[in-house]
């Protein structure tokens, strides 16, 4: 049997990037031989094994043929006769289809190294279409390597367009899609992920609610970039520049979905878009089974981001309602993430990237003021049950009034 390092580990070494995961391919072996060497099988009918010590993945060289729709519709053909070249040709991109032996001799039949130099994300063969998730993968790699100057080869973009139009993307499971989306959002240039999905027509299929924002104007006084889609891309870029967590990035992507519902006669104004967008945010959240913290923050940011921007003008009673909606007393971190998303929204506008955002500290101060109310003295005064709740609220409101006057 011959063993080669493949995929991302080879690509990233050649790019001079740190290698975290190593995938191996094994040529000329049978399942029985792998088990005899102590490898542990990953799944019943999947020719992938874990190394007994390192835990790294070793896959038998295999060819795949599509037998049906979606990811379940695969048949695998793994046998000792399958060559390294046959294994590599079924992979997604040329830069991911190189192998290396233990002497670092490169096997590169599909010119991955040439494409690395040309900064091109190019599919290896028509077998690309066997797994529609690759449309999202390519967009994710485009986001990751944008800073190095990588772009998607025109013929690959065309294939991605055909796949998007074919209905195959609808067969992807929410779990597989979310894994790609969440990883892509955490890249340094997450906006490129959205741009590439849009360019091949996949955004319209996966998130029509986001796709609909392109071409929708906003008032130039607040949004010099005018286009809502362009605004979303800038907000995502700001979120990455400020190293925001996934929850914030997801909320940034979805916060303005309501603007896609505004009747054209009302453009460029978007009255009540915060509220109108909630059902769309919920739908996208559920479509990808986003984790609960991402879902929650997206809904809250969708509903209240304008409150964030107007923080200094809000009446104490409205401020209190805002803080209550976030349950800021028990969930201080979530309120911090809300403030961060609002700030990214404010900065993700053409020419306003460097603006200051005094609302952030003001909101933090308001939260501290409301949190400073001690319950014990009210208990001592004899308040109980709903009356205690009302008394706490009154005290918090008083504290917020004092805070507003003092700032
Ligand atoms: N692969 C593929 N099609 C997929 C998934 C994976 O062709 N849908 C192949 C590629 O050759 C890829 C390798 O399997 O390089 C390993 O996949 P994975 O570990 O998911 O990705 P990496 O390329 O290692 O990238 P990352 O750095 O994002 O983990």
Question: Can you tell me about this structure?
Answer:
There is one protein chain. Helices cover 50% and strands 10% of the residues. The chain has 20 helices and 11 strands. It has 407 residues and is α+β, with helices and mostly antiparallel strands. Residues 7-8, 21, 23, 91-92, 96-97, 131, 133-134, 137 line the site of cytidine-5'-triphosphate.
Write the layout of secondary structure elements.
Blueprint (H helix, E strand, L loop, with lengths): L1 E5 L1 H8 L7 E5 L3 H6 L3 E4 L2 E5 L6 E4 L1 E5 L7 E5 L5 H6 L9 E2 L5 E2 L4 H7 L1 E2 L11 H13 L5 E2 L1 H12 L8 H12 L4 H10 L2 H5 L1 H4 L16 H14 L4 H9 L18 H4 L1 H10 L4 H18 L6 H10 L6 H16 L10 H14 L4 H5 L4 H22 L1
Parallel strand pairs: 2-5, 10-11
Antiparallel strand pairs: 1-2, 1-8, 3-4, 4-5, 6-7, 8-9
The structure holds cytidine-5'-triphosphate.
Could you say which structural class the secondary elements and strand pairing correspond to? alpha+beta
Unreliable stretches, pLDDT < 50, 5 or more residues? Answer: none
Give the CATH H-level superfamily of the domain at 1-111: Beta Polymerase, domain 2
Largest sheet: 7 strands, mixed
Terminal CA distance reads 73 Å
Strand content: 5-15%
Cα Rg? 26 Å
What small molecules does this complex bind?
A: cytidine-5'-triphosphate
Might you state the CATH topology name of the domain at 1-111? Beta Polymerase, domain 2
